[in-house]
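Entry type: protein chain
Record version: 2
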Amino acid sequence: ARGEMRVFKTLRATDLWRRMLTMLFETGHPWITFKDPCNLRSPQQHVGVIHSSNLCTEITLNTSDDEVAVCNLGSVNLLNHVGEGGIDHARLKRTISTAMRMLDNVIDINFYTIPEARRSNLQHRPVGLGLMGFQDALHALRIPMASDAAVAFVDTSMEAISFHAISASVDLAAERGQYPSFKGSLWSRGILPIDSIEILADARGGLDADWSATLDWTALRARVQSVGMRNSNVMAIAPTATISNICGVAQSIEPAYQNLYVKSNMSGDFTEVNEFLV
């Protein structure tokens, strides 16, 4: 009887997920975010709880009665940072250093509509650096989207963006000081995002993942602990739905929506073309 009850509960859960996913796609908002792993890996778990994400789920931050999460987002055009040999690491590092400084500046000069938002932003100073033009970078490198080479490029390019974003925040901490709630964070304990996936693996009883790295994370980890971080969060995969169109590249980390289509908004109709197929 217990076995049958477990099967019945599993079927009900499966049916529930099917209904949820169907409704999400029918309403045009196909996003599901699991807050338990978000809290397990959150660098700010020592000062609060993540209850939800923003609309597009690119970043998850603590909220409470006296704090309303705010995040400043920016995105690197990956197409502008690849050459015939692959990623131009020197140029990518310069771009990310500039972007992180700009995003950190916004925290101080921003206009906050409510005190809870200002309090949260100044206390934790989260920013979210993402990317766009991922498929365009693959086009430029002549790498098919569905290939092992594309997976390898994902691994190295995302590792580079993460490494340089964290390093830039450390540089800002040395210049401007740590963010106020740094002490007790995962950062202060030497646990970086590339490390915190082990916390998730332990919670799930194991995780099949590639743990390899190509950059000197040991040295960066030591700098984070000794110097500190200027920002509690540094990365976010934003959808870049409009700014990517302005830049003439595909959105975020996604494959191109279509090779030729018309996008309509309040400013008018815009013809979007995959220039690599022209």
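Comment: The longest strand covers residues 72-77.
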